[in-house]
Design brief:
Number of helices: 5
CATH architecture of the largest domain: 3-Layer(aba) Sandwich
Structural class: alpha/beta
CATH class of the largest domain: Alpha Beta
Number of domains: 2
Order of helices and strands: HEHEHEHEEH
Largest sheet: 5 strands, mixed
Radius of gyration: 30 Å
Helix content: 55-70%
Shape: elongated
Strand order of the largest sheet: 3-2-1-4-5
């Protein structure tokens, strides 16, 4: 059994760790609320932008490709994958889940894959696996801005339009709520013009626009690619802070349980020590009484 001093030392250590995890939980909660507001605010814009671009790209009676970013390749030889993870750990299974999803995706497609990483953990994971890393970006997990997305979008757009890759996918964690985050892999290039032809499908509103569809798509589609990447990054950041908040809350609760168990063990050890001392005193007194009686 551990000594009373060792148990008290361990209780003090666990209390110090509990204070750290509690502070990290509060910090993650503050960042999560800010990231959640940014995610929800931009989600409607991204969805509406997709709806408008779908309407413009899906011109009735037109069989030609209005923009290179809409071109569907008949044969897929190479693909690109953007993997979004965190810069730090201590967020439960957040990073591990997106890595597992990315590996499953690459195994299913079984094609040469070029990888762009967002986050230090994603970069380290790709380098350990020996994948074909063509771009890495870090330091975006605090307050991502739209300007930060430009270099990422330029890399994948250039890879696609030059023909070096035939499709571009993005792996990120979709923010559902504080408790639930869903790892997702979604195609972003070529941009899919979703046709609303099935029964029950919501029909598009009629939009009046100028100039021509070609000119409009030429200026808007690259920007829309950036919007898709930016929205995925916001979703990933909100999910990371939520996962870290939950992980730190669980760590704090586990620390409290451990402190309770250690306190009980300390009380038992102290009681055992007191009982032993009392027995020693009683034994000594009895020995002294017997010695005096013989004298």
């Amino acid at each position: 059994m551990a000594t009373l001093r060792a148990i008290r030392r361990r209780i003090k250590s666990v209390k110090n760790i509990s204070q750290v995890t509690r502070a990290m939980e509060m910090l993650a909660a503050s960042k999560m609320r800010r990231a959640q507001l940014a995610t929800l605010a931009s989600r409607a814009y991204a969805e509406k932008a997709r709806e408008v671009l779908t309407y413009v790209a899906d011109q009735p009676g037109s069989s030609r490709i209005l923009h290179p970013l809409l071109e569907e390749r008949r044969e897929r030889k190479n693909i690109a994958l953007i993997i979004m993870a965190g810069d730090r750990g201590l967020c439960g299974s957040f990073n591990a889940n997106i890595f597992r999803m990315s590996m499953n995706f690459m195994r299913e497609h079984a094609l040469p894959t070029k990888v762009v990483t967002v986050g230090r953990r994603a970069r380290d994971f790709v380098l350990r696996r020996g994948m074909n890393l063509i771009g890495e970006f870090t330091g975006m997990s605090e307050r991502p801005s739209f300007i930060d997305i430009g270099p990422i979008a330029r890399i994948v757009i250039e890879e696609f339009t030059s023909g070096r890759v035939d499709e571009v996918y993005i792996a990120y964690t979709d923010f559902v709520n504080v408790i639930r985050q869903h790892p997702t892999v979604r195609r972003i290039l070529p941009i899919r013009a979703e046709k609303a032809t099935e029964a029950g499908t919501k029909t598009h509103a009629v939009y009046l626009y100028e100039p021509s569809p070609e000119e409009l798509l030429a200026s808007v589609l690259p920007r829309f690619t950036e919007v898709q990447i930016y929205q995925a990054l916001l979703e990933s950041v909100a999910s990371e802070h939520s996962a870290r908040m939950v992980a730190m809350r669980n760590a704090s609760d586990n620390a409290e349980d451990l402190i309770t168990n250690l306190t009980l063990a300390a009380n038992k050890a102290r009681q055992t020590s007191i009982t032993k001392e009392m027995l020693d005193i009683a034994g000594g007194a009895e020995a002294l009484r017997q010695a005096l009686a013989k004298a």
